[in-house]
Design goal:
Keywords: Cell membrane, Membrane, Transmembrane, Transmembrane helix, Transport. One of its GO terms (molecular function) is antiporter activity. It is a multi-pass membrane protein. This protein is mainly alpha-helical and about 450 residues long. The protein folds into 2 domains: about 220 residues, no CATH class; about 200 residues, no CATH class. About 85% of the residues lie in helices and about 0% in strands. The protein has 17 helices and no strands. Helix 3 packs parallel to helix 10, helix 11 runs antiparallel to helix 12 and helix 13 packs across helix 14. It is globular, with a radius of gyration of 21 Å.
Length: about 450
Amino acid sequence: MAGTDQLRAAEPLADGTGRGGEIRRSAGSLALSGAAGVIVPLAVMAIMGRINGEVLYIRSVYMPLAFLYISLQMGFDVSNQVAAAISRGRGRVRDVVPVALSMGRVGAVIWGALTVLVMVSAPGLASLMHMRPELIGTFTAFVRWTCLASMLFLPTTLCASSLRGLGHAGSAAVIVVIGGSVEVGGVALLGYGTDLGVYSLPIAIAAGGIVSLTVGLVQVHRRGVWKARGPLVWRPEATEQLTRTGLPLAMSFVVIGASNFGLLWILGPFGPDVVSGFAAAATLESLVLVPSTAIGSATAIVMNRLRGAGRLDDVPRVLGSGMRHAVAVYAVIGLALWLGRDGIARLMTDDPRVAAETAHFLSIVGLSYGCMGVTVTAVVLIEQIGGGVIALVANIPYFGGMFVIGGVIARSQHESAGLYGTIAALNLLGILTVPLITWLFVRRMVRAPRELT
């Protein structure tokens, strides 16, 4: 059967050789998928910024809520990806679809509950962020429609993560790229061609979600994953994987989202130009970190297949290969961000005051992304090999430090530079600690392996 042959081709090499090449190939496809996932909000923000300033401001204030959905999406995405990779290593491809559908049942309940909570709390968030009274109604309606449209992310995420875990990162990237293209095109078409304004985004999200889900189902069938399925019954390992991997990861993203909300609150009194400039820089940061996420995920996929196959002795060498890739990539990225800060800021928005704030951020933080990228690679990797709680604990002082220390300095100086300097210092501190923690965790895992789900 064609599908079975394609699945067999994804087997990890028995002797563990060729790990660098496999990481590069997988990371390339993962980077394409991740870049599409980040370029979409960047493009949306750029389009909205050119519709009018109020539309961009509403989208910027919504960003912390978007992180809640990102946290939920990533929890299910990585949990299912890890489960699929381990199943592949064990030679049990038939488990992939039943486990994914079991995760989907859990996700439907959690996703629905979060949507109701956010829809109810939207007016309070607008007031907390010092939004002008005449914008609160528009913001509330925008949040509610966007949350409803975002519910389509769950089934699409399960399709893409199943394919990635099985070694079909390219097929997973197709899902994300096509859906994102529809979303960006929809925002541009509706934003410029109609009077919908900010409401063009939820409509475009819904259209992109429908298209990407359709493509995802086609890819799952074309790759033979659906044909290779076992009985579609409840699989308890779904909740075990969600608890072990997804929950700590989701909580890490909640910490990130809460931190971003706190940082926007800190910058709120400095005016909408500063808020929008920082939001643009934060969105750009997501793009900057795509290679680190891709390298970390690709390395973790290889490691999880080796874990599933019982080849733990090869795992440390895979870790070393992945981290060397991250160091090489981010030595270039950090320098490029700092040198090209003014041009990058102008690409983000045509508002000179907002662009000036984005360039101000990059002038202080840009070089430190060379350190942050390596650190994030280590965090992503440890999250996906069973160390989610450790990654969560490592994230709390970093993002808490930005909020507490950076907030105190910025508010006392009445200037955003104090916050940005704190972020740069924490980025430098991270590279001195997190990669070492990851190495120690892998070393312990090899010496005392745990039962895999």
